[in-house]
């Protein structure tokens, strides 16, 4: 365990260090999928209420990131990808990060409950519980299924956005949750393939470390084979239209090609196919939700021009 | 405890950020109250 700034008070932390604790890149994807949930949900929401819901989702995601960094500071210090984070680098003390994270988490859920609705607030609290309690504190150091089950936390924002508008949950938002849930394992295992030595050094039981790279490649392919058809289902249940279907089909095919390339990869040092799959998976997720958003906004614009 | 000028400057910037966040929260609650009390 690192001995730097895990306790006590840090005096050198900048505002930027605290912003980095919120994992802004993860937060941006959560905001995007949460916004899609709000926009595609049936019914109306006042724009300011919608903004408040999105703000709460973003702050809760940031709080979860800060708490994750606080509880995993010892692991982060051992991995090259994470050694420069604010706690292992000594800029922020672990206790301060814990206080910061829990304050934001409780604040986001409270504001969601007071200003939006209780269903959305309950889902938001459940998301924080899954990421911090189930993934970070329980599964991360114990099982290679850590990111499979923990991935539920990253998958829930569209459902929270949907519940912010409707005050309830139906099959449609849960399908969006299922798509992100199935997307998470191939996305993170692609990263883990070329970072496996880092994870092994930190003692994190990621799938390539525990079961080997061959098994990881097979599991990436298996999850991709389920994900791509699931990615087409929003069009089948009427949640999405032809634009979404075309985007999901085309980039889904690209995803499958890269997953097959990962399965056949022989360069275990550089893992070029895994790098490509990681990038394609990000494009896939962004494109799916962008298509959903675009279709709904075009529909609203067309409807407005008729009235 | 000794605090250098740089540390003092960073503390001041952190305090300003907290003040702005709290101010934004007050404005948000005020505006949302207006939205809710509208007929």
Brief descriptors of the model:
heterodimer, A: 307 residues, mainly alpha, Tetracycline Repressor, domain 2, Four Helix Bundle (Hemerythrin (Met), subunit A), 2 domains, 76% helix, 0% strand, B: 39 residues
Structure description:
The complex is a heterodimer of chains A (307) and B (39). Chain A has 307 residues and is mainly alpha-helical. Chain A contains 14 helices and no strands. In chain A, helix 3 (47-71) packs parallel to helix 6. The longest helix of chain A has 35 residues, at 272-306. Chain A starts with 14 loop residues before the first helix and ends with a helix. The model of chain A is unreliable at 1-6 (pLDDT under 50). Chain B is mainly α. Chain B has one domain (9-39). In chain B, 85% of the residues lie in helices and 0% in strands. Chain B is rod-shaped and about 55 Å long. The termini of chain B are far apart. Chain A binds chain B through residues 11-15, 18, 46, 48-49, 52, 55, 111, 115, and chain B through 3, 6-7, 10-11, 13-14, 17, 25, 28-29, 31-32, 35.
Note the overall shape of chain B.
rod-shaped
Number of E strands of chain A: 0
User: What would the CATH topology of the largest domain in chain A be?
Assistant: Tetracycline Repressor, domain 2
Order of helices and strands of chain A: HHHHHHHHHHHHHH
Précis, in short:
The complex is a heterodimer of chains A (307) and B (39). Chain A is 76% helix and 0% strand.
């Amino acid at each position: 365990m690192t001995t730097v700034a895990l306790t006590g008070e840090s005096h050198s932390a900048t505002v930027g260090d605290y912003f980095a604790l919120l994992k802004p890149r993860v937060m941006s994807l959560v905001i995007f999928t949460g916004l899609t949930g709000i926009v595609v949900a049936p019914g109306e929401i006042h724009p300011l209420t919608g903004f408040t819901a999105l703000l709460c989702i973003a702050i809760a995601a940031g709080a979860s990131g800060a708490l994750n960094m606080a509880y995993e500071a010892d692991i982060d210090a051992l991995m090259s990808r994470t050694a420069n984070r604010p706690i292992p680098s000594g800029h922020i003390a672990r206790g301060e990060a814990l206080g910061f994270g829990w304050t934001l988490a409780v604040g986001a859920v409270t504001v969601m409950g007071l200003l939006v609705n209780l269903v959305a607030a309950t889902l938001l609290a459940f998301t924080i519980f899954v990421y911090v309690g189930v993934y970070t504190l329980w599964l991360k150091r114990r099982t290679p299924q850590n990111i499979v089950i923990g991935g539920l936390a990253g998958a829930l924002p569209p459902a929270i956005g949907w519940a912010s508008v409707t005050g309830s949950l139906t099959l449609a938002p849960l399908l969006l949750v299922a798509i992100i849930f199935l997307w998470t394992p191939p996305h993170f295992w692609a990263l883990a393939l070329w970072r496996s030595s880092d994870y092994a050094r930190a003692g994190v039981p990621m799938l390539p470390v525990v079961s080997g790279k061959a098994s990881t490649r097979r599991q990436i392919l298996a999850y991709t084979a389920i994900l791509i058809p699931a990615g087409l289902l929003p069009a089948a249940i009427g949640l999405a239209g032809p634009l979404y279907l075309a985007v999901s089909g085309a980039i889904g095919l690209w995803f499958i090609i890269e997953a097959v390339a990962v399965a056949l990869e022989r360069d275990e040092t550089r893992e070029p196919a895994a790098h490509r799959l990681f990038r394609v998976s990000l494009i896939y997720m962004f494109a799916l939700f962008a298509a959903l958003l675009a279709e709904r906004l075009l529909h609203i614009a067309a409807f407005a021009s008729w009235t | 405890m000794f605090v250098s000028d740089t540390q003092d400057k960073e503390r001041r910037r952190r305090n300003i950020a907290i003040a702005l966040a709290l101010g934004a929260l007050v404005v948000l609650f005020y505006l949302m109250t207006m939205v809710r009390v509208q007929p």
